[in-house]
Amino acid sequence: MTTVALKTVGIVLHQEKPEARRRLDELRRLLSQHGVTALVESATTPVAQLGRQADMLMVLGGDGTILRAARELGTATTPILGINLGALGFLTSIRCEDMPAALPAILRGEFVLSERRTLQVQVSRAGQALESHRALNDAVVSRGAVSRIVRLKLSIDGEWLTEYVCDGMIFATATGSTAYSLSAGGPILMPTASAFVITPICPHALSSRSMIAGSNSAARCQVVSAAGELLLTVDGQVSMRLHPGDEVEVRQAGQVVRLVTPRGHSYFEVLRQKLKWSGSNV
């Protein structure tokens, strides 16, 4: 737990939600009452600049807005507090209506930092690196609008594993293990786990299951064939089209994203709520 009081806070918001604009005024008033300078994201003050100037970023939105903020921070490791406009998400820590009660302690520096590991995703074509992105949640190789199967060859640490006939492949961090990977049958990893999950999407072989790769592992997914459009999407934020022969290499990145949680915040309570776990009546 940290105990350093905050002096400057950067605010990132979901620009398309009117509720975010309304809550922005409330958040600025609360920060002003505690003597904290507020810097708001704008065309002239992007997230990367906020990260350099602020002690913390406060994100008004949902998990998607946090993913955007984490991506646009670049190499900065500025702590991020997620303030959800609706029900709590997996990445957001407090609800908007709880701001007056929760913020004073956080502004005094009374909070816990949860360090989330990320993935480095690189796309190569004919042996030449094309693009590289960092993922907090996941990198997904998936077909486009045309419903046709693809063939993907998977290697881990230079050793060929198998060739999948499937709809795509998900590479998820521990943080992203509760997102798309989970709905595709993947396991849940603790947020602090130093590993990542590889989950095939609708594989034609019933024996095909998710795999958990270690922190030092490198997974390489080669597109063998794709009858229709095939895309790589990173954190649902950026995407590029893949072609037969392209390779997607995924490994754990050295950089972490630091998420702020209030004291007493329970990951398992959120997990129970979001997955509707109520226990057994037996």
Topology:
Blueprint lengths: L7 E6 L4 H16 L3 E4 L6 H7 L2 E6 L1 H10 L7 E5 L9 E2 L3 H9 L3 E15 L2 E8 L2 E6 L6 E7 L2 E8 L1 E5 L7 H4 L11 E7 L9 E4 L3 E9 L3 E5 L3 E5 L4 E16 L4 H9 L7
Parallel strand pairs: 1-2, 1-3, 3-4, 4-5
Antiparallel strand pairs: 6-7, 6-17, 8-11, 8-15, 9-10, 9-14, 11-12, 12-13, 14-17, 15-16
Shape: elongated
Low-confidence stretches: none
Distance between the termini: 39 Å
Instruction: Using the CA coordinates, give the radius of gyration.
Output: 20 Å
* Strand portion: 35-45%
- Overall number of strands: 17
CATH superfamily of the largest domain: Probable inorganic polyphosphate/atp-NAD kinase, domain 2
Q: Regarding CATH, which class of the largest domain?
A: Mainly Beta
Helix and strand content put the structural class at alpha+beta
The chain-level mean pLDDT equals 91
CATH topology of the largest domain: Tumour Suppressor Smad4
By DSSP (H or I, 4+ residues per run), the number of helices equals: 6
Major sheet size, sense and barrel closure: 6 strands, antiparallel
The appropriate CATH architecture of the largest domain is: Sandwich
From N to C, what is the helix and strand string?
EHEHEHEEHEEEEEEHEEEEEEH
